[in-house]
Predict the 3D structure of the following.
Amino acid sequence: MDIPKLVGSSRVHKEVLEKLSRIAPTDAEVLLTGPSGVGKELYANQVHRQSARSHCRFVPVNCGSLSSDLIDNTLFGHVGGAFTGATALSEGLVSEAEGGTLFLDEVDSLSIPCQTKLLRFLQDQKYRRLGESRLRQANVRVIAATNCDLEAAVSDARFRMDLFFRLRVVPVEIPSLSHRAEDIPELVAAFTARSAEAYRLPELEFCAEAISRMQRYEWPGNIRELENCISYLTCLQLGRPIAPDDLPFLTRLCGNKAVSPEVHPEAEKPDESSDTLSDAKSRLVSEFERQYIERALRATSGNVSAAARMCGKNRRALFELMRKHEINSGEYRIAPP
């Protein structure tokens, strides 16, 4: 499988890569943290490839899809006849990762019952397939990832403390794209080449001013948003170097004042003629809330589920906020070229 190379020569990115290189030869559990879209799975794969386990498989697990009813079957598998419809052996993801690495993505999304089952496995890596009495011994390295504050989740009783410490033997924080903006020219070049190959189109060229604007933008969706941006521009086939005017979607979000033209000085001081402090605060909070939701929808191309995860809300709660602010997710979907 062709695994994208981790690109970037900024100091903060080099420090992360150096730390990963030091811990890769060990079998210690690693907890990767950082905002959504920074590419945590790629960094986990980097650890795997630099370890003695690189000859075996790297198996990602989307913890968000594991319910308490499915986790045993998904991770540990079943034998034929274990339940209605189980006509053949299913090895499970732990068996697939034997000798290699099991990557637990979005580990914060596990329910408490699922966390308990995972902790029991991690204690000695022993398990049974459904319908089988034999106790099996696994040999996998576990790397977990989250975009949430697990310590806060522990404090709120949403995440088991013992599982948190079991997973966080070596914590590694992956920086947001805004904290490594000097890497953007390299990333743009890499994504430009990749998009051109994928779509069989000519490679994009960017004028210096366009790159500068991209470096000043906050990128709330991080690497994923940048890659989607390059794919979109590649498909447009403008036939000329990309200029700042070709990047209007970078000015729609009001996070970075150096990029956004919509700066409202009146919002920075109270209106002496009308608003009370409470009124002004409510108005500004409401405006911030609206802009934050719009930014998340823009970063996820109108994907409400992904935007909800970015906002730390469930899908229903985000829909309620969108209804409150009269926000239509369809306006943020990238139209086909």
Notes: The longest strand covers residues 141-146. Residues 252-269 have pLDDT under 50 and may be disordered. The chain has three domains: 11-175, 179-263, 266-337. Strands lie at 30-33, 58-62, 101-105, 126-127, 136-137, 141-146, 170-173.
